[in-house]
Each structure stands twice: as structure tokens, then as C-alpha cells.
Amino acid sequence: METQKPLPPFEKMEKMSSEERRKLLDEQLKWLVAYAYEKAPSTRARFDEAGISPSKVSGIKDLENLPLLRKDALVDLYKANPPLGGLVTVPISELERVYVSPGPIYDPHHSSETYWQRHVHLVKSVGFRKGDIVVNSWMYNLVPAGLMIDEALRRAGVTVIPTGVGNTELQVQVMHQLRATGFAGTTGFFMNIIDKAKEMGLDVSKDFNLRMAVIGGEMGGGPIRKKVEEEYGIDTGDMYGTADVGLIAFECSAKSGMHIAEGVIFEMISYETGKPVEPGEVGEIVVTPIDEIYPLIRFGTGDIASWINEPCPCGRTSPRITRLLGRVGDAVRTRGMFIHPRQLEPAMAKFSQIAQYQAVVTRPGTRDDLALKVELKTEEGVDKEKLASELIQVVSEALRIKVDRVEFVAKGVIPEWHKLIVDERVY
């Protein structure tokens, strides 16, 4: 098989015309499809079922008849084809790490140089630079986020303080004493740290050395970021990605949308018809990363957004996501993590005294709030305080984010036919 042709330096690609970029990515896609068809059994089966021969794929337009690969399909593939779902092109023994996402899905640690070229370029483009000292509060346990951001920053010449999530008082001390210049994490958790610093008598503007906070992973963070910049003089940026694909897009200094990263083939399709949508219209983000280790071809992220395809004031010419608007299906992004009914159902099945339940996500302030509404079969003999405590512990472990409270409701409040997780945030 013909070897993969390396991509040009991304600094060169980001000023290419749309036509030049598409031609280059079409060539990369032709190689990737042929390679994945040979090395990844589940990819081969997918193409065969769609009646698409890899030899007939000359570019992105030829993929329109290939059904999307969705998160739920990944769960089924990993169950049916252990250990790696027939999706990874190398044996598990050749991987440095394997991460565990809900499902379970076993995401491989990436060793593709194109993957890391993309990530290093992205963290530099969003505003981090050699010499920065960055607190990385993304989760290091099980999921890829913490270690992925960690490695990308270190490859970019940044010193990383791997704090992970939680322990806000310690985070404040570390940030203050080590004179951290940057922060990476969710918007809500960053504001928790800021609030804790005030409680500890610290002036964020004067006592901290922060110049850059790349905060995201949650919907509706724009007003909070504006507050951080205006009140504390800290520049902010945003990045967008998934556990499976890694980082996909970043915000530049112009702050006029998030650029699709070079090395990612991007489509925007109608979540109703499956057909491409024009710039300015709303659709689902679909990506094919150039990654020979984990070649997820036509991966439907489930994220709904608007987009534009015109040069940015910063000079880059890549397509931009102008606004994330929500999700396709039942998963809800909460505090930087997706929570799904398939995580909630087995946890709640342990409590036989419960008739109906529903998780509700709101945002009363700067942090996503997660409540669990519960309808009991009978209140007779039920210790509600003890049950609420047990529910919070079990469900928090299942969802991997903390349930804030349990609300016991009367019969009929939760309708018989209802979504198990609802998003009531207003942006």
C-alpha cells in the first residue's frame, strides 16, 4: 500500500484557499479510507454494507452515501468486537494507554503524528505559548481529556500543572504560589476557583499571574468569559473536541467563531435529511480526522451548530463554527462531560422503591446544576434523607459528575413518557 503523504506545516495550510485545502484533504482521505479498510475490520464491514468500494473514493463528496458513525454505534461495536471494536488499526499491546468512556467505549491513546501535529498547532493557536505555566484541570481519570491536553501543551513547550478537577482551595494555592500564567478546563469550574480565591482573600487581578484561560466544554459560556476578561483582565479562549476524535476546533484572537483544525475533514449536514447544509445554516458537525491509528470516518459528533466558510479577520481561511446550539439525540453535555440515559438507567435500576425518575440540567449561575427528580412507589417506610444520599453517591459515580441534589416529587409530576435527561438551561 502507498504510504501516507505527510501534511504540510499547518501554518501554511491555514492560509490556503478552500479549494487548495479540499484538494489536499481529498488526497489524504483516499489514503485513509484504503488503509482503514485494510486494517480495521469494522470499517471494512461498514463500507461493504454501504456498497462503497474504497477504490471509488476520490474525495469527500464520495462519502455522502456512507452512513454516519455515531457514538451509540461505537458502544455496540466495542461490545461485539472486543477489545477495540474492530476500529483501531494496531493491536492493544501497541497502545500506550486505553481510556474508558461511558458505554463502555475504549478510546485508544493516539500515537499518530498527524494527530499530535493538529493538537500542538491548536493549543498554540488558541493562545498558549512556550514558557507558559498552565494549570490543567481537565479530568485525568479514565477519560482522555486530561492527558490529551497535557501532552499537547507539553509538546508545545508549556509547563503543565496536572491538577485535574476538584479541590478548589488547593487549586487556588497552586495557581497563586506557582505563578501560573494559564488555565485549561471548564468554564464553570474556573469560576468556582475564582470564587474560592475571593473567599480566601485574594485579588484575582493583582495576586494572580494569569494571562490566559482557555475555558469551555459547556454551552452558554460567552457571558462568563466576557466577565472574566472585563473584571479580571484575563484573556480567554475556547476549544472544541470529543473524547473519540480529540480537539476539533479552536477560537483565535479575533473571537469570531472556532476554526476547524487543520488535519480534520469537516462536513456540516442536516440532522433531518442527512444532506450537506450551506454556510450560514444549522447542521450537525461531522468529522473525519486524519489519524491512521483510530480512523473514525464520517464520525457524527451529535453536536448542532451554525457555521461559516469565509476568511477570518485573523487571516485563516478554514471553516468556522459560529455557535454550538445543542445535541442530536439524548446525550446532554454537562460540566464538560456528556451524560447519557444508558449511564443513568442501570444506576437507577438498583433502587426498587422508585417509580419514575428524571435528571434535570439547569444553569442558575456560572455552573451547571444537576438535579435528580424522583417519584416513589410509596412513601411508607422510606427514609428519604438516607435514600437521597445513596442516590447521589450511586448516580454520581455512574455519570462521573456530581449530582447536586435529589428532589422527591408527587405522582404525575414526571409524565409516563419522558426523557430521562432534560436540558433546561437558558443561554
CATH C-level of the largest domain: Alpha Beta
| Outline | globular
Classified in CATH, the superfamily of the largest domain is ANL, N-terminal domain
The overall average pLDDT, rounded, is 91
CATH topology of the largest domain: Rossmann fold
Helix content: 25-40%
Instruction: Compute the number of structural domains.
Output: 3
Q: What share of residues are in beta strands?
A: 15-25%
- Name the structural class: alpha/beta
Work out the helix count.
12
Major β-sheet profile: 7 strands, antiparallel
Low-confidence stretches: none
* β-strand number: 20
The CATH architecture of the largest domain comes to 3-Layer(aba) Sandwich
Distance between the termini: 50 Å
Rg, alpha carbons:
22 Å
Q: Spatial order of the strands in the main sheet?
A: 8-9-10-14-13-12-11
Short description:
The protein is an alpha/beta fold and 427 residues long. It folds into three domains: 10-109 and 241-329, ANL, N-terminal domain (Rossmann fold, 3-Layer(aba) Sandwich); 116-237, Rossmann fold; 337-423, GMP Synthetase, Chain A, domain 3. The chain contains twelve helices and 20 strands.
